[in-house]
Write a structure and sequence with these properties.
mainly alpha; Ybab, Chain: A; 3-stranded antiparallel beta sheet; 4 helices; 9% strand; elongated
Length: 147
């Protein structure tokens, strides 16, 4: 439909669209700049916080349950909480920037602009559901329980 518009109108529309995307990117970046995600391990013995780039910013051990854990159990709980937190932050980033991918995909030449979130976040998303434990952590926990 926009192909029928005069070139000046198409350029103006493209410029306006670009400015809208730039403003939306700035807003999303600003919203995420101070974002954190705090999660607990499945056994509730480790609480971990990550920053906007998935970096570890805090680790706590609520209660005293961690004191009776073996090194392998504590390690598994820490890794579980870290995986959950990283996945949570990745979801937050996808929610913030997801609408922008729709803004970009409508324009001419946008065929190659699809976002591959798995490529961007890699292992942060692997095996983590919205609310569940990762399959790898579940297997590790089973192995520890068998010992």
């Amino acid at each position: 439909m926009s192909e029928n518009l005069p070139i000046d109108d198409r350029v103006k529309k493209a410029w306006d669209d670009l400015q809208a995307v730039e403003a939306a990117v700035r807003q999303a970046e600003q919203n995420l700049h101070q974002a954190t995600v705090t999660t607990r391990s499945a056994d509730r013995k480790v609480e971990l916080t990550v920053g906007p780039q998935g970096e570890l910013t805090a680790i706590e051990f609520p209660g005293s349950g961690h004191r009776s854990m073996t090194g392998a159990e504590l390690s598994a709980s820490i890794l579980d909480a870290a995986g959950r937190a990283r996945a949570g932050m990745a979801r937050q980033v996808m929610e913030a920037f997801g609408p922008l991918t729709g803004m970009l995909s409508g324009g001419p030449g946008a065929e190659g602009l699809a976002v591959d979130w798995n490529k961007i976040f890699g292992s942060a998303l692997e095996g983590y559901e919205e609310s569940g434990e990762s399959a790898a952590m579940s297997r590790l926990r089973d192995e520890i329980d068998e010992e």
